[in-house]
Amino acid sequence: MAHSNPKLAEVDPVWAQITDEARTAITAEPLLGGLVHGSVLHHKKLEAALAYRFSQKLASPEMSEQILREIADEAYAVEPWLGEAARADIVAVYDRDPACDRFIQPVLFFKGFQAIQAYRIGHWLWHQGRKDMAYFVQMRTSEAFGVDIHPAAKIGKGIMIDHAHSIVIGETAVVGDNVSMLHSVTLGGTGKEHDDRHPKIENGVLIGAGAKVLGNIIVGHCSRIAAGSVVLEAVPPMKTVAGVPAKIVGEAGCAQPSISMDQILGRKS
């Protein structure tokens, strides 16, 4: 696609692509003009658009759009990594989800992407010492998107959560870069202890639908967890585990399972 703003494309190709797609979307479906203008074309950069979407989706009688917008604008202004991570997430969704054929789709329509961006603002608030506001963002994210991520959890960039229904990620969980997971995944604890009690998911891991990973265990890089599995023990790097409880059933099948998204056991990608 030839960008309508070549200079913007050089500086920020992701945002340039989104704005070009926005104009095309309005031409194809004029009834979405208000949504697309308000969410994309009214803004000069991706961070402003994301702050607007955050405030629109999480506002409630308890917290106005204006207050939430101010919180998000401040977060994006003082923490550049938030915008960097969002761009990586957009590209990850586009690359890995066959239902996504435009960069604009996650920004407008995909609750997995939107929930992760909301979590990131909650995480920023948590580390600013504003824990009650972070809990509010967690609560509203869960109510709006069905995704419950504790604001203290640590999540990298290039994250793709497909469908994103009933995702639960606990307080001391760690998720690395370029991780893909499907709906109904739980990264949970195994008891009432207050110390480090949640899983550590390394880079490039693919977690299938309905999988439960429980306890302070490490899931090694570029491994696969089959759908419906219950993982209670550490997973070595580049292995596939399946079952209840999960056991090693083979190699990961490829170098980057979270990118290939191949979930068929016993088949090489």
From TrEMBL:
Enzyme Commission numbers on file: 2.3.1.30
CDD domains, sorted: LbH_SAT
Any GO molecular function: serine O-acetyltransferase activity
InterPro entries membership: Hexapep, Hexapep_transf_CS, LbH_SAT, Ser_AcTrfase_N, Ser_AcTrfase_N_sf, Ser_O-AcTrfase, Serine_acetyltransferase, Trimer_LpxA-like_sf
Pathway annotation from the record: Amino-acid biosynthesis; L-cysteine biosynthesis; L-cysteine from L-serine: step 1/2
Serine acetyltransferase N-terminal domain mapped to chain residues: 14-118
Reactions accelerated catalytically: L-serine + acetyl-CoA = O-acetyl-L-serine + CoA
Protein name per UniProt: Serine acetyltransferase
Taxonomic source organism: Litoreibacter janthinus
Classification lineage: Bacteria, Pseudomonadati, Pseudomonadota, Alphaproteobacteria, Rhodobacterales
